[in-house]
Design a protein that fits this description.
The complex is a heterodimer of chains A (368) and B (369).
Chain A: H1 6-12, E1 21-25, H2 41-50, H3 83-92, E2 98-101, H4 113-132, E3 138-143, H5 149-159, E4 165-173, H6 184-192, E5 197-203, H7 218-238, H8 241-244, E6 250-253, H9 260-274, H10 285-292, E7 293-296, H11 306-316, E8 322-323, H12 345-359, H13 361-367
Parallel strand pairs in A: 1-2, 2-3, 3-4, 4-5, 5-6, 6-7, 7-8
Helix pairs in contact in A: 4-5, 5-6, 12-13
Chain B: E1 21-26, H1 33-37, H2 43-52, H3 90-98, E2 103-108, H4 120-139, E3 145-150, H5 156-166, E4 172-178, H6 191-200, E5 204-207, H7 225-245, H8 248-251, E6 257-260, H9 267-280, H10 292-299, E7 300-303, H11 314-323, E8 328-329, H12 352-367
Parallel strand pairs in B: 1-2, 2-3, 3-4, 4-5, 5-6, 6-7, 7-8
The chains are: A alpha/beta (368), B alpha/beta (369).
Chain lengths: 368, 369
């Protein structure tokens, strides 16, 4: 494969590949009222009596540029609430065969664990009824309440029977680093059902997003997400999650991905000097990541020069780690420019189809 | 498992006369605070030190939050033959490190000053005393060594006073903070420090560690020392993002930022990320007038220890080129355990002038010495 520019490349092949699997799509809960039919009497009463507010996270302010691409944004209300638009703009628009819905409604941010559990169940039932039942190309992640990992595991057990749910969803920042053993019931349940754990940008805001406290600008919160992914990956590896759960896969969603090689070089450097501290980490962290960690391709923290993407992929030293995503309706690219400039057809095929199918066993059922 | 301590300082020197280097991260410590630092502290603060110690925003009175990988985080062979702690004895440092490694310029970065103390007045007094101590015990005795102005950075007014006191003093070549401040480093409460440092022509070095009180990850406290160590790189990215996006370099266009002991290979990806975020959020960032990657390229330097080690050495060639060879500074971190030997780091291939600049001239150009 020569060094075609992206423009040359797109003349011969539309981007992305027809039949691609979109691993990060964001249908939105339009408002809390939409979840009422999926809450039991007690929680429905609580929502009404207490005037519970919308659970929209500050990670994605409703009108911030990243939250909705201008051409995907309705005149009023949130983007991502209308199935017909999702069909037309995301599924038909990118000719995707399947798309995994990651609902970002902020149930993980609640301080009350039983309330979070109730809302997580409601979101999953809403997802099944309002989206999956109506559109056969859609799959979804199981939203759980990490506030109580036992409740989260119970919800995984409940939803896993429905094979349209193909993953468990967490936010990258929570009460504790995600490798902590507190969370292991979640990983145990996910592994038991053959479900990858998707870790999405965002926070429950129990801590400031930076190690130095709260920032001044939203842009700094956005920037800090990729550092949070680095720390989260460090934690998963050092705590021994992948030693304990050898079949577990983790998918980093909306992480920016180009940070990964440098981070693993550094973690590997210290692992060489400090491995006596975590003896269960019995091979280089980069090797562990190649076996267990996948990343979606939006956003692309890369310059315009396609040669740089080629070099970054050389640093990955693997063509199996990246998964296609549009991040619809988030604004990460223009037009149908969903693949990195300079990508070879062979790598595009891996990213768009082979890698998602290898990562999510349940997607193969649809392809059979 | 037992660890045998091998004491062979007499044989620690490299085999032959090495390339001339600048070591941009050397850690001196007092033999005794009472003997060496108290002479520069008032009676009041001496008594305060003896009564309360140095209370930081971390759990223990003495020692770090996470036990280190080695005693005193030091090379086993760096203890002074008379039993003194590593980095406390100039003659031994000369013999073990400065002479055999042909260190032409050694930048002193004292890690135990008043930085990050809960009591800001004590922080100011102790930082100033440690600055005096650097002159008395180190820079006045070996012309290769240059000091860092330790700033009590949580109090900007006291820090400005300390910068003004040291401005123009050839014993000092940079101002000095620790990475983990109480608020993000771009926060306007620190701006007077940056204006004063830029005015005094003292680059601002920001070293790993610190005691701001927030957890080192946005998801709380990790379990292991390795996470704390690797976490400095994420903290450094937070620092650069914060200073760039909050407009520090527009406000202080002469400010030079040096990231010390927090890695460098993360910088290209961060620059690309910030460019994207900046382009999308211009409404929020009218004070940032050009792409963050340009600002970083112009204003940020990085010391290389502990050097990143990809399996394929060629990968670092890309990293060096993306950052710019002229922005990378060699450092050893003497006397700490994760010391980088200048002859053993996997430096990407480069012509002789570029290599020499990396080892020495970049630092001379930055510091003007």
């Amino acid at each position: 494969m020569g060094r075609n520019t992206f423009r040359e490349f797109t003349e011969v092949m539309p981007a992305p590949l027809p039949g691609a699997i979109d691993c990060d799509l964001h249908p939105a809960v339009p408002n809390l009222k939409a979840l009422l039919p999926y809450l039991d009497d007690h929680w429905r009463d609580m929502v009404e009596q207490r005037g519970v507010h919308e659970l929209d996270s500050i990670s994605y302010p409703n009108n911030a540029p990243v939250t909705a691409r201008p051409d995907w944004k309705p005149e009023t209300g949130k983007a991502g609430v209308d199935l017909d638009r999702v069909r037309k703009e995301a599924l038909d628009g990118f000719q995707t065969s399947l798309a995994i819905c990651n609902c970002l409604y902020g149930v993980q941010l609640l301080y009350t664990e039983d309330m979070a559990y109730a809302f997580a169940r409601a979101v999953n039932d809403w997802m099944a009824a309002e989206w999956l039942d109506k559109e056969p190309r859609l799959r979804a992640s199981i939203v759980v309440s990490p506030q109580n990992p036992d409740y989260a595991a119970a919800e995984i057990d409940r939803m896993a029977e429905d094979h349209r749910f193909v993953q468990v969803l967490l936010l990258v920042m929570d009460e504790m680093p995600l490798g902590r053993r507190r969370y292991w019931p979640i990983y145990r349940a996910a592994e038991r059902h053959g479900l990858p754990v998707g870790i999405h940008a965002g926070s429950s805001y129990r801590h400031s997003v930076t190690a130095m406290g709260w920032p001044t600008y939203y842009a700094e919160d956005s920037a800090a997400q990729s550092q949070a992914f680095q720390a989260g990956l460090t934690s998963l590896i050092t705590e021994g999650v992948f030693a304990e759960f050898p079949d577990l896969k983790v998918v980093l969603l909306e992480s920016g991905f180009s940070w990964l090689p440098a981070h693993l070089w550094r973690l590997g450097k210290f692992w060489r000097g400090l491995r006596m501290e975590t003896p269960w980490v019995d091979k280089h962290p980069f090797e562990i990541a190649k076996d267990h960690v996948r990343l979606t391709i939006q956003p692309r923290d890369l310059p315009a020069d396609p040669a740089v993407f080629e070099r970054v992929m050389a640093h990955f030293d693997s063509d199996e780690m990246l998964l296609f995503s549009t991040d619809y309706p988030h604004w990460q690219f223009e037009g149908d420019d969903a693949l990195p400039a300079g990508i070879s057809p062979a790598l595009a095929e891996k990213i768009c189809r082979d890698n998602p199918l290898a990562t999510y066993p349940r997607l193969k059922e649809a392809m059979a | 498992m037992t660890i045998e301590t091998i004491q062979k300082p007499e044989t620690a020197a490299p085999a032959k006369q090495a390339l001339a280097i600048a070591d941009c991260d050397i850690h001196p410590s007092p033999k005794s605070v009472e003997k060496e630092v108290f002479p520069f502290l008032s009676k009041h603060w001496q008594e305060y030190y003896n009564t309360y110690g140095t209370l930081l925003r971390q759990p223990y009175q003495n020692g770090p939050a996470y036990p280190k990988g080695q005693p005193d985080a030091a090379r086993r062979d760096a203890y002074v033959p008379d039993g003194g702690k590593p980095g406390t004895d100039l003659a031994f440092m000369q013999k073990q490190h400065l002479d055999p490694y042909n260190v032409q310029l050694g930048v002193l970065n004292p890690l135990k000053s008043g930085q990050g103390l809960q009591n800001p007045d004590f922080a100011g007094a102790l930082c100033s005393a440690v600055n005096d101590w650097q002159i008395a015990e180190w820079t006045s005795k070996d012309a290769r060594l240059k000091g860092s102005v330790c700033l009590p950075y949580e109090d900007a007014a006291l820090s400005v006073k300390e910068i003004e006191k040291r401005a123009g003093d050839p014993n000092f070549i940079q101002s000095f903070m620790l990475i983990r401040t109480a608020d993000p480093m771009g926060n306007r409460r620190y701006w007077p420090i940056y204006e004063a440092a830029a005015e005094a022509g003292l680059p601002l070095a920001v070293h790993a560690f610190g005691f701001g009180g927030a957890s080192i990850t946005g998801s709380g406290w990790p379990s292991y020392y390795i996470e704390d160590m690797v976490g400095h790189s994420q903290s450094a990215q937070n620092v650069v993002a914060s200073m760039v996006l909050e407009g520090v370099f527009e406000r202080s266009p002469k400010l030079k930022l040096v990231i010390v002991e927090a890695g460098f290979a993360w910088a290209p990806s961060l620059a690309w990320r910030l460019d994207r975020i900046w382009a999308q959020n211009r409404l929020e960032l009218p004070h940032v007038t050009r792409p963050p990657s340009e600002i970083m390229r112009e204003h940020v330097w990085y010391t290389t220890q502990p050097f990143e080690e990809p399996d394929r050495r060629g990968h670092l060639k890309d990293t060096f080129e993306w950052i710019g060879w002229d922005r990378l500074l060699f450092a050893t971190d003497y006397p700490h355990w994760d010391f980088d030997d200048p002859s053993r780091i996997p430096l990407p291939p480069a012509d002789e002038a570029t290599r020499n600049a990396f080892y020495l001239q970049n630092a001379r150009d930055l510091y003007g010495v």
